[in-house]
UniProtKB/TrEMBL annotation, chain A:
The gene is bshB2. Gene3D superfamilies: LmbE-like. Pfam families: PIG-L (PF02585). SUPFAM superfamilies: LmbE-like (SSF102588). It comes from Paenibacillus albus. GO terms for molecular function: hydrolase activity, acting on carbon-nitrogen (but not peptide) bonds, in linear amides. This is Bacillithiol biosynthesis deacetylase BshB2.
UniProtKB/TrEMBL annotation, chain B:
InterPro entries: DUF1806, YojF_sf. It comes from Paenibacillus albus. The lineage of its organism: Bacteria, Bacillati, Bacillota, Bacilli, Bacillales. This is DUF1806 family protein. Gene3D superfamilies: Hypothetical protein YojF. It holds the Pfam family DUF1806.
Amino acid sequence: MESHILVVLPHPDDEAFVAAGTLAMHIEQGVKVTYACLTLGEMGRNMGIPPFANRVTLADIRKEELEASCRAIGIQDLRMLGFHDKMIEFEDKQLLDRSIAALVEELQPSLVITFYPGYSVHPDHDACGAAVIRVIEKLPPDKRPVVHCIAFSRDHEREIGQPDVIIDITKYLKQKVASIQSHRSQFQAAELMGSNSLSDQEMQARYGTERFWTYRFN
Amino acid sequence: MQPINPSDIQARIDALKEQELYIHLEMTTGAYAAHFDSSKHPGSIFITNTTVKFSHGSISGSGPYRIGLKMEQGWIYAEGLTYYEEQEKERLIMAGHDSQGKLIVAFQLSKTPF
């Protein structure tokens, strides 16, 4: 069993789609989970139909959605690191790395979950994963937590192969769906949820498995 | 946000003339544009919290709307605007959303930073 899981992702709602079931499973087993969310997703494009948010109000709305998602999953410790959405790749690397290193030092996680740098489509995802890898890489090999990465770019399986951690989260679909639904301003995205009225079977096929790649440090 | 009422917007633009204003101007196709459709070319820009001053400005078109602001040495332009925040008294907050509700363009002016 893991002692403490640290999740480092850049946007509110990243946790919902890629790791909510896995986290709910660990939490039910008594594992502590800290979610460090780098930004408030304030540059997101989904604003409701018709739009109920704008560039000024979106940050507060997404903060509340993030908190609701964490409650749905059972995450006990949410850290909002306050970086600017879309700017992670341009951020001062020392500042970014220091804030992640401080969390690793404080929490001594046995497992860290983040995006696979280079294979995660959004520049914020890649830059977030790269920062986590830089931080963990600096630790002596015997002090490094295991790092599970999420990848979904078009070329990812050709480059990094099949995921080595495949988790059946069928038992935790309820938490996962509740987490996704917490992100009200994002949830209407048709390409993510289809008609919003998927059958149980469709939900299971689409969301019943979460996949991770264990990062191999040299 | 409410669908744009051009005469209300024009009055708001006129009220903001000839003063230092903070601007947030943005256009984006979204970071996933090419991921969902490889024929798409992703493009985004934004500039936020720099100051501008315009002498003359107007809204044009029949929806989606265009805005042009004439400055001492140049112009500011935005196309594709569909919604604005009617409740805002001091700031002008406008956006253009596509048929899926996704933000395409944002155009905002304020006397204080965003």
